[in-house]
Amino acid sequence: MNTELSWGSKVMRIFGKDKTAALGITIIIVTALVAIFADWLSPYGPNSAADTAQRLAMPGTAGHLFGTDDQGRDILSRIIYGTRTSLFSSIVPVVISAVVSMCLGIIAGFFQGRIGNSLMRIMDVFFAFPSVLLAIAIAAILGPGLLNVCIAMVIVRIPYMTRIVYTDTIQEMQKEYVEASRAYGMGRAAVMFREIMPNVLPSLIVYSATLCGVTIVTVAGLSFIGLGVQPPTADWGLMASEGQNVLMQGDPYVTLFPGLAIIILAFAFSTLGDWLRDLLDPTQK
Amino acid sequence: MNMIEKTDSQDPVLNIEHLTTKIKISSGEVSVIEDINLKLNKGEIMVVVGESGSGKSMTINSIMQLIPKKLLKGYEGSIKLDQSDLLTMNDRDKWKLRGNKISLVTQNAMTSLDPSYRVGKQIVEIILASQHVSKADAKGKTIDLLKKMGIEDPERIYQSYPHQLSGGLRQRVIIAMALSCNPEIIIADEPTSALDPTVQLQVLDLLKDVNRNFGTTILMITHDFGVVSYMADKVVVMYAGQIVETGLAKDVINDPQHPYTKSLLKCIPDLKWIYSNSNNNTSLFNIPGEVPDLTKKITGCRFAARCFKAVAQCSQIQPELKKVNALSSENNMEHLSRCIFAKED
Amino acid sequence: MYKYIISRLLYVIPVLIGVTILVFLMIHLIPGDPAQTILGGEATKSALAKLRSQMGLDQPLIIQYFDWLKKIITGNLGFSYTLHMNIASELLPKFWNSIILTLASLVIAIILGVGSGVLSAIYKGSIFDKVFMAISSIGASIPVFWIALMLMWLLALQYPIFPINGMVNMRGNGGPLDLLYHLVLPAFATSLVSVAVIAQLTRNAVLDEIKKDYVSFFKSFNLSKVHINIFHVLRNALPPIINIIGLQVGYIIGGALFSEIVFSWPGVGQAMYTAISSKDYPMIQAGILLIACGFVFVNLIVDIINIMINPKLHESVSK
């Protein structure tokens, strides 16, 4: 219907219509800005606990909007600094696995036959594991740390993303343009990455955005088990986990706020995914 | 098989008077059909004909009370089924009539059966819902019905899923479902438009048989004048939510009074031609222009913009339905036309 | 239909082989000597040598795999050098406890998720629909461990309605009611995310069905709305709903790991948590193998149900 509309006005139109998406995208932009300008925005350093008298201050205490944790560190400041690890550990693994999956999926879909089948059968084995369990297993083998968690997330996401690219590629392969470009004498690699890739990219982008949200939650879970970011780094999952002991004593705030931060950012990514789906592929909805 | 006499001595089975249906739209409301009057006696076949947007579907949706509450603004007038007015009846009573007195044969034979159940079970379900019979009796009745629908191996069809049947067979099953509770009147919504031309004729023949053998009154809508001449006792031509011409089918076909009817008839000169062409019927319309947007106010005749006979007066005064000189001597059905040029009685 | 079920059953074999290979390789992928990894840094040379020959580490990898597989099949899940006990006797009872928690969570997720999804679809646009869908779009992003902690704080500490942890009351005489009482919080915490996801997808699936032609055709008969919604709309929306439930089983199994840790539920998750912090790799390996096999089995059931409810896969009626 709106094919004659320019790309920009199309974006604005959907943006204006979909208030949830507008909210989600705003949250992501604000989070990114907070991560960049954390040093200026944060009232305290992430680990400054000079004031030991201020341990476990309640939210709303002067100077500590969200209160302090059991070491007297300001929770708001740690949440502000936590945007860095959260954004990093959600976006980077997803982007890497998207790139890898794009190659694997297109190759498997293009050559189908023996290469494609055996590649996809290997992927099937990964589907036999609940993804959280697989992430835990890999992270447990590699040992704790942010980098290892990211590697674990990359390995866990690849099968899912590859399958999406693979099924899309197979659909594209049946279309005429692929045959036509082969007939023109275009090389295999050129057909795969110049002709097919732009057509399978949209659904991968949509899925990636959604996966960023899921990944934040999973990474937080790994931190909770002790496999993720190590103390004293400010990380939302770790903070929520560290609040456990205090929570048993009746103070939920150390866990509450970082958890809310995780939920808000994850929610924002999932609305981004929905919005991109409407934008790039209106037929799918 | 006994022929049931078509008589007019009794009260009409379906009597619609001054029916107006209003639908909610973003800018208020719109009357999708306006001042519709229809009278159907027992055993008659009435065909409502018009393009899409003419209001014919809205007419049957009003009769079947299938307009979603969210969309419906309200009705005016009356829809009397055997003397009781559907529009003043409570939901429970209305609901009891469904299937028992009045039932629907839908347009989309391919998609109107539940894909998850064997077709026999679906008919049994309808029978059990309104009749106090045992399951075994319902099954027997179903097989019997399928046989009456001209299906050769009813046992096999009973055990089939919809996706295993052809469109024509599915439409027969749908007609069997509609008949399963012995309704007095069947409303058929373009029952053949989704079918192959050769199958269309078979289904029309089946409906004629049903009308003759069961005495079922049929109200059918179509956009195809070929169907009118093949089936109808009475015809109603609708345009933009109004009746523009109505009368006995032979009168209207032999002596059409409204330019719209004439155009429609010109589109479809010969029934045989339709069935020897596999073209989609919708392409047969070649009247220039489109049905007007009812949400905008129209003064004068609604067809004026597309009419070959239109004069200045047409777009100023809205013509009333007026009686025209009927050809046939039967005077139980007046021939009416909504055109200033119609020859008066 | 049986043709499809049998081929699906046969498909389990290569998947299980793949799973065992992957789990087997786990320990061998860790850089360094597996015996060293298992026994830890302070192990004596003689202990290392003993373990090496015990595990057959001097053998080629493929022989090691088949030896290991033979043991697994006979129910020998290996030996925990941290706990100094047979893993099977430690883990199998816990696996059973995990199944209880997982099944309870699954039942909650299905009842609440499908129920509210159907109601939302039927009353589309109502306040219930809007509020519930807003909640579930956020609910799908909640970390299980966080909601578990919050539920524990609210309903076990602040308002001590439910027990803080454990599976049975150690001092009471137990019984199914006591188990149920201990099950409430962990099961709800585990299922909430899935409730949200299942509800959203059920709503979409039902909305897709509700506008189909056969629904309006059936409405033209005197069948009640409830009857049509249950036996026709919901029946036809089942395949996508069952698919999403199948996918959610994976999330519920993963979520149960966290709930077990928070509520000290004596299951595989908790055992693995302890094993991870003490680097008890044979235990981790066995836990992952058990859960993965369970998941393969659940997926099999889901697929078989899907085959059974799809009339297009039924034998065509003989002429």
TrEMBL record, chain A:
Domain ABC transmembrane type-1, first and last residues per copy: 87-273
Segments passing through the bilayer: 21-41, 87-110, 122-140, 204-229, 256-276
Cellular localization per UniProt: Cell membrane
InterPro entries xref list: BP-dependent_transpt_permease, MetI-like, MetI-like_sf, OppC_N
Keyword match Glycosyltransferase: no
SUPFAM superfamilies, A to Z: MetI-like
Record membrane topology: Multi-pass membrane protein
Statement: the UniProt record of this protein carries the keyword Zinc: no
Record Pfam families: BPD_transp_1 (PF00528), OppC_N (PF12911)
Keywords assigned by UniProt, alphabetized: Cell membrane, Membrane, Transmembrane, Transmembrane helix, Transport
CDD domains: TM_PBP2 (cd06261)
PROSITE patterns, A to Z: ABC_TM1
Predominant localisation class: membrane
Family: Belongs to the binding-protein-dependent transport system permease family.
Protein name (Swiss-Prot/TrEMBL): ABC transporter permease
UniProtKB/TrEMBL annotation, chain B:
Domain of life: Bacteria
Signal peptide range in chain numbering: none
Record bears the keyword Cell membrane: yes
Single GO MF descriptor: ATP binding
Protein family per UniProt: Belongs to the ABC transporter superfamily.
Entry-linked PANTHER family: DIPEPTIDE TRANSPORT ATP-BINDING PROTEIN DPPD, OLIGOPEPTIDE TRANSPORT ATP-BINDING PROTEIN APPD
Official protein name in the record: ABC transporter ATP-binding protein
Automatic annotation (TrEMBL), chain C:
Protein name per its UniProtKB record: ABC transporter permease
Bilayer disposition of the protein: Multi-pass membrane protein
Localization, UniProt: Cell membrane
PANTHER family per the UniProt record, alphabetical: DIPEPTIDE TRANSPORT SYSTEM PERMEASE PROTEIN DPPB-RELATED
Pfam families on file: BPD_transp_1 (PF00528), BPD_transp_1_N (PF19300)
Coiled coil: none
Family: Belongs to the binding-protein-dependent transport system permease family.
Keywords noted in UniProt: Cell membrane, Membrane, Transmembrane, Transmembrane helix, Transport
PROSITE patterns: ABC_TM1
Keyword DNA-binding tagged: no
Organism: Sporolactobacillus kofuensis
Domain ABC transmembrane type-1: 95-302
Residue ranges crossing the lipid bilayer per the database entry: 9-30, 95-119, 131-159, 179-202, 241-263, 283-309
Primary subcellular site in the record, as a coarse category: membrane
